[in-house]
Amino acid sequence: MKPKRPKGYNPFNCPKNNSVIAAFLPPPEILRNYNSVVPGLADRIVAQAEKQTSHRIALEKKLLTSNIWKSFLGLVFAFLIGSLGIGGGLYLTFVGLNVIGIVFSSATLVSLVMSFIYGSQCKKFVQSQ
Questions:
Q1: Which of helix, strand or coil describes residue 2?
Q2: SS3 letters for 63-118?
Q3: Contact 105, 85 (CB under 8 A)
Q4: Which residues contact 112 (CB under 8 A, 6 or more apart)?
Q5: What is the residue extent of each domain of the chain?
Q6: How many CB atoms lie within 10 A of CB 19?
Q7: Which tens digit of pLDDT belongs to each residue from 28-62?
Q8: CB-based contact 129:121 (threshold 8 Å)
Q9: Residues 110 and 89: beta-carbon distance below 8 Å
């Protein structure tokens, strides 16, 4: 049989606090309380929040720039691969290797189209989440 505990009993002797802060900075009342415990602590917390915000903005700029470059380089390399594949197929066709040239050109076109479709589907999937 379990011993009866008084109402509000906390085995860890910790005060219960049911408030949740969903913002980046605590409300002004809590900041004032921080200042009463350690003078200047609220200013340090706000400065840290400003520093974190500027750091996050810088990271987002780097991410955006790298995504733009990655997209641009993907287009450039796809153009080069497509040009070489189709050009090689045309060359083989004009040299007299008709079947091999057509297969080479067709394989290049199919691979480029499939990679485009796959990339489009991946973007739609990521945007939907």
A1: coil
A2: HHHHHHHHHHHHHHHHHHHHHHHHHHHHHHHHHCCHHHHHHHHHHHHHHHHHHHHH
A3: yes
A4: 78, 81, 82, 85
A5: 28-128
A6: 6
A7: 888 888 888 888 888 998 899 899 999 999 999 99
A8: no
A9: no
